[in-house]
User: What shape does this take?
Amino acid sequence: MERVFRNGLWVGTGPDARSVQGDARVVDGVIVEIASEIDPGDAEVEELNGKWVFPGFSQSHVHLCQTLFRGLAEDLELLDWLGERIWPLEAAHDEDSTYWSARLGITELLLGGTTSILDMGSLRHTDATLTACEESGIRAACGRALMDRENSSGLSESMDANLLGACDEADRWHGRGRLRYAFAPRFVPSCSEELLRAVVQEARDRGCVIHTHASENEAEVELVRSLTGMDNVEYLHEIGMTGGDVCLAHCIHLTDAEERILAETGTHLLHCPSSNLKLGSGVARIPELLARGVRVSLGADGAPCNNGLDIFREMRLAGLIQKPRLGTSVLGPGAILEMATTGGAAATGLGSVSGSLEVGKAADFVVVDPNHPTICPQVDPVVAAVYSLSPAAIVSVWIEGGPVVRDGRVLAWDAEETARAARDAALRVRRTAGL
Assistant: This one.
């Protein structure tokens, strides 16, 4: 199929990128031309009427299985948040509730312009999450949260059961349509070294991303030291879990040696500013890490640790929280937008496919109304994206040249059905968990 999108401002990302006012030709889901004016010929024409077009936003750390827990884990630090709320709630999930949790989260993500995600599920029911992703049309890399150390919620399995389940899911889902599998050990305190080493081997044999948490909280860092005798990232590096196929969420409390490891190995750092603030975890040294060459992208994390999945909020906070530390000119909006687009795509293993508006890449983009009251009269779309935009200004969202959102509506399913079923599922999970 061929479409010409006429008269938009196609926003460039990256240090050398430029924006183009004009048209784009999309053939079979791929951008084949961007120019000031294109003769559509027999192609279907989509009139943009001067609207701004951004690359689809890519969130590199979310938990769709936790969307039903929004507002149920307030005012807790990480380890208590997990042990007292999140693990009991995840343990209470069934296949149906996991599906509706994912569907609700995807609805919010798509309406907010996020077209690709790196998701960490729970220990069970990952098929339900991947099914919702497939139905929606979103690009997603997702995997079960591997956990073989016992905990009070009973949310663990043997090392062999963990690995067998993940490998089976990977064999069925990796490369299926717009989906990829990600091996996702939860974090060092929930995984034996035997499991972590096996994950590295299995993920690399299958060409899958490895996705875990690291150094989010000071108590977690101390726990890792007590378990391994090493700092968190140092330990992961020792067992082979660093490199361009490894994504580490948070990385707030790092030593100088650990920062060097991330830079030298090309490991991706997944920055989640609103989650880090709400759980009181701290402020990651993102400007310093970028200066060292660390690859950084953005994610909202799960709904119960920030109460929303809005990439615009993450971009805004990513900029604002650094200014009191390092001055008002630190971490400009261009660098932040890059983290939310090309950075996220690279972390998810989609750097050659999406993340920027370029000839040869998939037509994944977000159309925004520059006359929306939250933006007007700004003329710089990059500044607007980071500090002004909200989902309310989004007109439509496209993946591979096909619409997934129009006029505030996700096209894959009914919004009222999603909300109704999600509320019912959330009530059932809360009752099962006793919360």
About this structure: The chain has 15 helices and 18 strands.
